[in-house]
């Protein structure tokens, strides 16, 4: 009995009908002729209530439902959740579906209404867009069913406690994956350029053929065989490329629900995939006041999964980042010239100039690409018209901050450091294009 009472709810029609009957009884105090009519309606309502109750509670499992989640969620993207609902009643039911979605979304009234014919199964899909990585816990799935009479509502609850992990945006990774193919690069504004110099690695020794470069004659092989032998080389493709993410407090700043760190993480995953598709070695490093999780650049088949798992677990802290520690790590760990894509953020020129000696030292041994962010909200604010003196002052300060960002980019470039100054939402495509441009120019 208690189990039935827990499932029993009263529909909106019940309350409307009850209000109508109460109003008739109230008016019958002055118009007695309405009293029998009100009494008749009250009896009919009781009869319909019993019939409606019998229809809904006469079958033990009138409604069946299940929730299907993807293996993992993609951070910052819309992820589909599938609900399958089966109506086992012999009549059409109206349903209100209430799903207990994870606490991270901060929604307690997430639901929708639908109609379901007798003996029919329906598949409903809704989308969730997470804004932070981690484990998300789903609660119960509740369905509130009512018959065509609509006086009684029965709740069906399914204990579908499920968890799903939110990983860096692998949907973006798949979206931009086609950029790895050389034939499509020109569609994104990249022109084929003559390579400056050549990066070549030894392939094999072959007999000399007319037309071979005489500079590649292998005199030791000639002495052993008595024949002209030449060294043959192939263009070296497997260059180390590292995504280096600043985990300091400057990366905590939020934009459109995601922190700068999450934008950098999503971009790093996409970039690592593109680099591996291009035959390069992809690696990862993180730093703040200490060197954080990192992995050596390789092109193993499992490398992308390793990068994703490392990106899944990293978080920002509050210390100021130490680029000197990054330089020391690179000198110890990176023996070969590499492309270092450093995701960080500089809000003023002074902050950049404190780190400039370390960036210049890095650029002597590697190709350094510094990626930092425009404040597009500040830019929109600076472009709106000002009408008062205080607004003029605020917009002047905002313009000064924006000017400093451009000044930082120019000063880095003047010191031989590749630079990307981009809006957070454009980070991924800007990073890919810059990487492909560096590859085309033969810097690595």
UniProtKB/TrEMBL annotation:
InterPro entries: DUF58
Residue span(s) of domain DUF58: 205-323
Top-rank taxon, per record: Bacteria
Entry keyword set: Membrane, Transmembrane, Transmembrane helix
Coiled coil: none
Keyword Transmembrane carried by entry: yes
Transmembrane parts of this sequence: 14-33, 39-58
PANTHER family: BLL2464 PROTEIN, SLR2013 PROTEIN
Full protein name: DUF58 domain-containing protein
Lineage: Bacteria, Pseudomonadati, Bacteroidota, Cytophagia, Cytophagales
